[in-house]
Amino acid sequence: MPNSIYTTIEKYARASVPSFIAPLGKKMIAWPRYWSQLKKCRAQYDLYKEKYTQTTLYIAGLPKSGTTWLEMMLGSYPGFSEIMLPEAVAYEQKHHESHTYDLPLNTFERFSNALVVLKLHAHGSPHNFNLLQKNNIKYLVIYRDLRDVAVSYIFYVQRTAYHPEHSLYKKLPIKDSLLHFGKTLLPQYVQWVNSWNQYKESPLGLIVRYEELLEKPFESLTCITKHYGISTTEEEIKSIIEKNSFEQLTGGRKQGTDDNKSFFRKGGSGDWKNYFDDEISSIFDKELMKLSK
User: Fold this and answer.
1) Distance of CA 171 to the CA centre of its chain
2) Does residue 150 sit in helix, strand or coil?
């Protein structure tokens, strides 16, 4: 079954399937989608394997931090395709989050003859870093102003029936949602950022801010492709950026224009200023002070 069909099913489940059924449906398609994606990744390998020095492009990022956008841009290079680990889907459904996920020990062995873009919300645990190091996998970490993450996360979860926290957030007004996020997920997300920052001197890793990618996409993607050892041209980079621009991904909607029903809701930065008051800011500021430099 083509990967686009699974994407269509997931999009339908996000918006239309009752919340008590949707998580089961997502879990059921996880393995068939994985095998379909892996087959595609392997089929492209023989055609393009001589073109790339690294055949697995690993991305770690928090939810709603530009990871899907980056995944799509890297997946635009000839031969590369995205893939999702079914174990990660099961972990998210069981634990109601995926930012503390540890990769299976055989993750990169599975992709030895495939061109893969692997995007996960997994943290920088010793297990994950050592696995990347053992397999000599260059990786990219992307994160965003956690205040903007909170706003985007809440709107996404409220409209996504299969999300584990949908039943909680769909009942809450925006202020209560932000207060709850600030007291529960925010400390964990701060810890997530710090977990990867502890390895910032590793030559295997590259840390990118979403705001930098948004403001200077050409310079950022140039740096990213150089890190992964992808041989490319200015024209190819510009073409990939245009192909994956906010307007293209949303059918012509201008960046900054709000659509709470879309996966690509607004595509900007600083939107938190429209929702935060003094009470919310106080909670967030206290936690954000704990971010490592």
Assistant:
1) 25
2) helix
C-beta atoms surrounding 135 within 10 Å: 15
One digit per residue, the tens of pLDDT, for the chain of length 293 reads 454 554 554 554 445 555 556 556 677 889 999 999 999 999 999 999 999 999 999 999 999 999 999 999 999 999 999 999 999 999 998 998 999 999 999 999 999 999 999 999 999 999 999 999 999 999 999 999 999 999 999 999 998 887 889 889 998 999 999 999 999 999 999 999 999 999 999 999 999 999 999 999 999 999 999 999 999 999 999 999 999 976 765 554 455 555 444 444 454 789 999 999 999 999 999 999 999 87
Q: Would residue 275 count as lying in a domain?
A: yes
Stretch (H or E) spanning 61: strand 56-61
**Enclosing domain of residue 94:** 3-288
Task: Tell me which residue of 62, 124, 68 sits closest to 98, measured CA to CA.
Answer: 62
Distance, CA of 60 to CA of 65 (rounded, Å):
10
Nearby residues of 196 by Cβ (< 8 Å), 6 or more positions away: 60, 123, 124, 141, 143, 205, 207
Residue 293 lies in a domain: no
Alpha-carbon distance values, 17 to 11, 21, 39, 51, 239 (Å): 10, 7, 28, 42, 36
The single-letter code of the amino acid at 56 is T
Q: Is residue 158 part of a domain?
A: yes
Calculate the alpha carbon distances from 281 to 21, 44, 101, 291 in Å: 36, 48, 29, 16
CATH of the domain at 222: 3.40.50.300
CB atoms within 10 A of CB 199: 18
Which are the contacts of 91, defined by CB distance < 8 A and separation ≥ 6? 98, 101
What single-letter amino acid sits at 199? Y
Q: Is residue 257 a part of any domain in this protein?
A: yes
If one counts the domains in the chain, the total is 1
The Cα–Cα gap between 125 and 92 comes to 17
